[in-house]
């Protein structure tokens, strides 16, 4: 979980930046590349969170296999 929580926080920040960037673009206060860059960062943070969740799930599966307990 220690890797999932920071990724969740980074995703929330990237979402905020993306929304702000779109709003600034709509107001003509930033350019399209800046808005697109925020969108790319947001997509990367989503992938980072998914990767952290998958690593956590795999580590949990390995741990339960080692100690011989089942989750069901």
UniProtKB/TrEMBL annotation:
* Full protein name: Outer membrane efflux protein
What organism does the UniProt record list as the source? Novipirellula rosea
């Amino acid at each position: 979980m220690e890797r999932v929580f920071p990724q969740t926080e980074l995703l929330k920040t990237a979402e905020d930046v993306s929304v702000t960037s779109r709003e600034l673009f709509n107001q003509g206060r930033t350019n399209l590349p800046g808005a697109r860059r925020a969108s790319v960062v947001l997509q990367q943070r989503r992938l980072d969170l998914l990767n952290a969740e998958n690593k956590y799930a795999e580590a949990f599966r390995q741990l339960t296999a080692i100690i011989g307990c089942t989750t069901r």
